[in-house]
Amino acid sequence: MLQPRMLSREEEGATAGSEENEVRREDQEKINRFSRLHQRETVLEDQLKGKQKDKEDLEEVSMELELADEDELVPYKIGDSFFQLPLEDAQSMLLASSDRIDADVSKLEDKLSELRDELQELKVSLYARFGRSINLET
Questions:
Q1: pLDDT tens, residue by residue, 42-56
Q2: I want to staple 122 with a disulfide (CB 3.0 to 4.6 A). Which of 25, 32, 34, 87 is the partner?
C-alpha cells in the first residue's frame, strides 16, 4: 500500500498560494478575457463548419445541375419558396451564392486567426505568471 508523501516547504510554497501566485486584478481580467475569447472561438468554429457545409451542398447541387437539360426549368429555393428558373439563371445564382459563402468563410477564418493569436498571447502571459497552477488547455 502506498503512503502519501509529505511535501517539503519549498514544494508547498510553489504549489499552494504563495504570495507571488496571488491573483491580481489584471490577472483576473486576463483570465476573464481568455474565457470570453475561448467561447467566441467555439461560436466562430461552429459558424465556419456551417458555412463549409453550405458550400459543399452548393457544390453538390451545381454538379447535379450540370446533368440537367438546358431547356428545362429548375426549382430554385429563395427563402421559404421555390421558383422555377431557367437552368442558366439557377447556375448563375448558385455561383453568386457560392462566392458569398467563400467570402464569409474567408472572413470567419481571418477572425479565428486573430482570435487564436490573442488567445496564445494570453496563454503565454498567464502560464508565465502562474505556471502549472492554471489550466488553460481546452
A1: 999 999 999 999 999
A2: 34
Global pTM value: 0.73
Cell numbers 509529505 correspond to: 6
Place of cell 467555439: 42
Q: What is the 3-state secondary structure (H, E, C) of 94-120?
A: HHHHHHHHHHHHHHHHHHHHHHHHHHH
User: Which grid cell is 36?
Assistant: 470570453
With contact defined as beta carbons under 8 Å apart, do 82 and 88 qualify?
A: no
DSSP H or E stretch at residue 10: helix 9-15
The answer to whether residues 118 and 38 touch, using CB atoms and an 8 Å cutoff, is: no
Write out the H or E segment, with its range, that includes residue 77: strand 73-78
